[in-house]
């Protein structure tokens, strides 16, 4: 993927002020659409065989999600269950994200997969995303 304006297409990877490679929303959306297209094209008779070869998905591991969150997200978010925000806080606490009206795991995962512009690019596996989302949603009070 080209960096620093190496592509004529807007929104692809570029370097931020710290030198880290980031991806604009257009590039992220393009990748998400390509993934969705690939998934949809697999819905044929051979899909049954492909699914039988795929290992079963593991349920979210909230302890692993908490550990990942502490390691990767504490620069901007408060990740602890009972903690509240302060004046220097850059992003909402995870508990506040979980309590947001209408919040669900799909929305949280979407915000991680296609982040807002100020959120640093973090490379996570699908299972790690499940774990972090599981941890965030575990902070939602019972209804």
What does this entry show, briefly?
This protein is mainly α.
Walk me through this protein's architecture.
This protein has helices at 25-41, 45-53, 62-73, 94-99, 105-113, 126-138; strands at 14-15, 21-22. It is mainly alpha-helical and 143 residues long. It contains 6 helices and 2 strands. A hairpin with a 5-residue loop joins β1 and β2. The chain is globular. The N and C termini lie far apart (45 Å). It is 46% helix and 3% strand. It has a two-stranded antiparallel ribbon.
Write out key terms for the chains shown.
mainly alpha; 2 domains; Cytochrome Bc1 Complex, Chain D, domain 2; 143 residues; two-stranded antiparallel sheet; disordered N terminus
Q: Which secondary structure elements does this structure contain, and how are they paired or packed?
A:
Layout: E1 14-15, E2 21-22, H1 25-41, H2 45-53, H3 62-73, H4 94-99, H5 105-113, H6 126-138
Helix pairs in contact: 3-6, 5-6
Order of helices and strands: EEHHHHHH
**How many separate helices?**
6
Major sheet description: 2 strands, antiparallel
Low-confidence stretches: 1-12, 36-50
The global form is globular
Helix content: 40-55%
By CATH, the topology of the largest domain is: Cytochrome Bc1 Complex, Chain D, domain 2
Tally of structural domains: 2
The CATH architecture category of the largest domain equals Orthogonal Bundle
- State the end-to-end distance: 45 Å
CATH fourth-tier homologous superfamily of the largest domain: Cytochrome c-like domain
Strand order of the largest sheet: 1-2
């Amino acid at each position: 993927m080209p960096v620093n304006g190496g592509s004529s297409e807007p929104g692809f990877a570029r370097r931020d002020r710290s030198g880290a490679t980031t991806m604009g929303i257009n590039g992220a959306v393009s990748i998400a659409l390509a993934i969705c297209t690939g998934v949809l094209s697999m819905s044929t008779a051979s899909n049954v065989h492909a699914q039988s070869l795929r290992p079963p998905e593991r349920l979210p591991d909230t302890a692993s999600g908490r550990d990942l969150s502490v390691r990767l997200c504490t620069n901007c978010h408060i990740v602890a269950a009972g903690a509240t925000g302060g004046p220097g806080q850059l992003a909402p606490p995870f508990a506040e994200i979980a309590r947001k009206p209408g919040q669900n795991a799909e929305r949280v995962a979407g915000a991680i997969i296609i982040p807002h512009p100020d959120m640093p690019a973090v490379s996570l596996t699908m299972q790690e995303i499940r774990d972090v989302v599981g941890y965030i949603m575990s902070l939602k009070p019972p209804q």
